[in-house]
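agent: user wants the full assembly modeled, not chains individually. Plan: 1) parse entity lines 2) check alphabet per entity 3) run joint structure prediction 4) return tokens. Steps 1-2 passed, two entities, 460 residues total. Proceeding.
--- entities ---
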Amino acid sequence: MLRRPRVVLILAVLAVGLLMVLLPSRLNDQLKKSVGWFYLPMIGAANGVEAVGHQLRAYVTPRSSLLSEIDRLRQDNHRLRVRDFQALEVFRENRRLRQMVQWKGAQPWDLRLAKVIIDDPANWWRSVSLDIGSDDGIKVDDPVLSVQGLVGKVISVSGGRSKVALLGDPSCRVAAVLGNSGHGGIVTPSGQGAINRRIVELKHLPSEADLAPGAEVLTSGAGGVFPSGIPIGRLIDSQSYDFGLYSGARIRLRADLDRLDYVWVIARSESHEEVLE
Amino acid sequence: MNRITLILLVGVAALLAFVEGRGLLREGIFGTRIDVLPILVTYAAFRSDLFAAVGLACFSGLLFDALSLNPLGVSLISLTLVSLFLSQLRGLVLRDQALAQMALGAVVATMNPLISLGLLWFLGLSPVVGWGTVFQIAVMGASGAVLAPFFFLLFDWLEEALTYEEEPFSRFRSEVEIKRGRG
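--- prediction returned ---
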């Protein structure tokens, strides 16, 4: 049996715990950030160890392979610069055409590179923390991508850190379209995503949508959070819901959410000219 | 339990919470991320008193939640309930037996996520769960069974290494000492 001081201790701890979880989410987030300060030295130490590892690897890598890597990167750089010229011209043309038909100007992307420093340790959430925050111009709801495709969106920001809800988390729902037919739906978590993080569901598709396996799924731009045209994944299979009124499909995400090291955050820029310059 | 061992246990809990969050085992085992904090709480509950176990549960629970999308306090409650459960078993379990440690590890590693998920549902949140979650919890239980004897062995060894050896029994008895001299 528990003696009196022990009962008091247990009840006090449970009461404090309950009080914490029942706090308004903003206050709870603030408390969480305060506790998170504890990890700063550990994050610094881990980054230091990684840096030493990089340096050691640089010492043992043969000079010939470094030179061939530089050559390859130089070629890539030239090719991408030429593509950038083309894209800039297309962007200018697009802006002129939009002005002619008096459409709202498309927001250009202002990309910020971020390092993934913490991955959610719980099996039932999909989130990561980045090493950039409001000091770097990051805001809540900024979209996050990797070179493979969409990754998620920023859900909380502090000075030098930000938390990202990944695709497949309940707090990251994305309006999407099928690349082949243009039919739209919402990307939501999947029960299968509990084990395989690359599987999500595309729901609320019209029943007549062409749901061919392998079809490309892109962001639709509806809702204003995610720009249109970012690749999300490919359709695996489909089924109908509500007596055939709607269809749903499983999607395999393009981005490997288990191996995120660096991601790009699309910070909303104030003016188009600023980015074009 | 020796105070230094307790401090080490707290340090290891902080380090492991960070390692779990740093994603060194991102893909986990069979798609499951392993949580070793309940096993450390088990060790504290069986080798020390309830105060140490609850203290460790609070500390490691807060650190775990700080890295996760869990509202702060969820893991604190679940680990505290786990330590309470263990303190009730203290006198009933042969805690030096590896088999008993394995069984305890399996039970706490299964119990902790179940309590956390229950709390999250109680709070009206919708974590990502499906049939796969049952498998994940089974994997967590199995990993708890495997890791518990290892942690018991490691911390018992540390405890032994960090504790002063007791002075051997002396045959000298002051009441039978022969006093020599004039006094």
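agent: reporting back. Chain B is about 65% helix and 0% strand. The two ends of chain B are 47 Å apart (CA to CA).
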